[in-house]
Design goal:
Helix content: 25-40%
Radius of gyration: 23 Å
Shape: elongated
Low-confidence stretches: none
Number of helices: 11
Mean pLDDT: 92
Length: 357
């Protein structure tokens, strides 16, 4: 798929994944398993990798998680970012234990001396740092400023940290400045792209909510920013299994025409003309397409009115009629099949025509 024109930031590497500098927007998620249990965590990472996750982040809440973290880094199929809050020594140790990068929070990491120690550790290990500013944990001196709006506070914190890093000669930086609402997210990232146009941006709406609400908020906020050329890597936070974050991220990238991993399902909303249970049929097709790894478009249409004609740009599809369906390829009729065999016939044709799927 054609890559949308994006702001050209400098490039860093998280393991073998390039971020910024014109690289494709990468998909991230975060483990929900205890890092002290490497087997459970690695199993989740493998599931996420199977869904298309490209970078994974794990929490290191205390020193007791470091041995597990080291084992995870050693065996993970994805580059592993250490998520650090409060204790800068955990970041220093994570760099020694195999982290591909680490994230620190300016609101709780502590003094500049502690920040400098993490910069030195990352420099020695040759890994980038994500400066992860968060609206819910801004440093007190920024949070209490009455002369700034929330987006301005997020930008002020971000700019001060980036400047400090660069003044010390460290430029392997990725930046995020997250909030839980879409307007703040948009205002903040637009300002960051103007103030720091060279810094790769990690974009997302944090604490976005459960699957439905969180998907909507992330799709609106992140989708608008990506369409404007803002954003180099994304994590779509959801109160759901992390695999859902990855699925939604890929659907978002595909909807924008930026990247596609799975097939696109094109299906009509149905109307009074429909003479089959199209919702059931479309859901079955969608479920079976989850196992298909070809970037094709598949149409499931409710009647001949919006069948091949409205879905003629799709690679393959079926248009329903009374008791039967019409298989079509590139908008051209192929053959009719009985209603109870429509889905199987569709996938038989997919497998014949797209064996890589």
């Amino acid at each position: 798929m054609a890559e949308a024109v994006r702001n050209l930031t400098h490039q860093v590497h998280v393991g073998n994944v390039p971020v910024g500098g014109g690289a494709p927007v990468s998909v991230q998620s975060m483990c929900t398993t205890p890092t002290s249990d490497p087997e459970m965590t690695l199993a989740q990472i493998q599931r996420l990798a199977d869904e298309g996750c490209e970078i994974i982040r794990v929490a290191i809440p205390n020193a007791g998680a470091l041995d597990g973290f080291e084992e995870i880094c050693r065996r993970s199929p994805l580059p592993v970012i250490a998520d650090i809050h409060f204790d800068h020594k955990l970041a220093i140790e994570a760099a020694k234990r195999g982290a591909a990068a680490f994230r620190i929070n300016p609101g709780n990491i502590g003094s500049w001396e502690r920040v400098d120690a993490t910069i030195d550790a990352a420099g020695e290990a040759g890994i980038p740092i994500r400066i992860g500013v968060n609206a819910g944990s801004l440093a007190k001196e920024v949070d209490e400023r009455q002369d700034l709006t929330l987006p301005e506070k997020l930008v002020a914190s971000s700019v001060s940290f980036v400047k400090h890093f660069e003044d010390r000669g460290f430029t392997d930086i990725v930046l995020s400045a997250k909030a839980h609402d879409v307007p703040t997210t948009l205002a903040t990232y637009r300002a960051l792209s103007r103030e720091l146009p060279h810094i790769p941006l990690h974009v997302g709406v944090t604490e976005a909510g459960t699957l439905r609400q969180g998907t909507v908020k992330n799709s609106v906020g992140v989708g608008i920013l990506l369409e404007e050329g803002i954003g180099d890597t994304i994590r779509l936070s959801l109160t759901a299994e992390p695999e859902e974050e990855v699925r939604v991220a890929w659907e978002l990238l595909a909807a924008l025409g930026m990247r596609r991993l799975h097939p696109e399902l094109v299906s009509c909303p149905t109307c009074g003309r429909c003479q089959v249970d199209l919702i059931k049929i479309a859901n079955e097709v969608e479920e079976r397409l989850q196992k298909t790894k070809a970037p094709i478009s598949v149409a499931v249409m409710g009647c001949i009115v919006n069948g091949p004609g409205e879905a003629k740009s799709c690679d393959i599809g079926i248009a329903s009629g009374k008791g039967q369906g019409l298989l079509f390829v590139n908008g051209e009729p192929l053959r009719k099949v009985p209603e109870d065999g429509m889905v199987d016939a569709l996938f038989d044709e997919i497998h014949v025509r797209y064996p890589e799927a």
